[in-house]
């Protein structure tokens, strides 16, 4: 075996690998590479002894078919295995170890296994992808993110939406001689949807400032987008910025007077706005009373 290599390290997780059998250094996995692999000698333990591997993992599932497309997995453990694969060569076998710790830096779980990478389809670096491929990849990751939201896997969904946005941004600057105006409009529409979806994920964790920033970016591209205005309203109300929230919800109702969610939010905000107006009136009165 060769010396231990640190694949990735942060305060709550470390990934190591040690090569058992070297592979072909000219063939390595990139984004979208289809990899064939096999795992053996799998062990999962903590301070209490043997423990269970995450049931949501695809790679460690009993039904795993041995194929991984780099960049297309969602579970955090699978994403960590992807990092290992991207540091391997075709034909390589290695011993891998992933250690997870809690906030107190205590061991939560240590997973070790042998991994053998048997096949790799050679792919271009993302920087060499055509705009069509980047756009299609962005749509793919966005659609996968929507499914994850339905499964209530919000962290994984956020990661997908963020990846989709990065793919879209990578197309810029847009060359009008190559990309037609109608396609540019579709890209802008996709960008707005991604900002809105990211804002939705942030709202589920009460990350109001981040949600407002994302809604602002969406509204910069589409000033009358109802979802962006509504979600910014929710975020502003969460920060007790009721005047600003009221302005947004009134804008939504101007655009769609029959929007049930907006009508309900307006009803909820109305007493707060009335109280603010009453307090303001009382302050003004006191200013003119000698």
From TrEMBL:
TPR repeat start-end pairs: 192-225
Cited Gene3D superfamilies: Tetratricopeptide repeat domain (1.25.40.10)
Cited InterPro entries: FKBP4/5/8-like (IPR050754), FKBP_N_2 (IPR040478), TPR-like_helical_dom_sf (IPR011990), TPR_rpt (IPR019734)
Domain BDBT FKBP like N-terminal: 12-121
SUPFAM superfamilies: TPR-like
Domain of life assignment: Eukaryota
Key words, A-Z: TPR repeat
Presence of the UniProt keyword RNA-binding in the record: no
Pfam families associated with the record: FKBP_N_2 (PF18023), TPR_8 (PF13181)
Name of this protein: BDBT FKBP like N-terminal domain-containing protein
Species in which this protein is naturally found: Pieris macdunnoughi
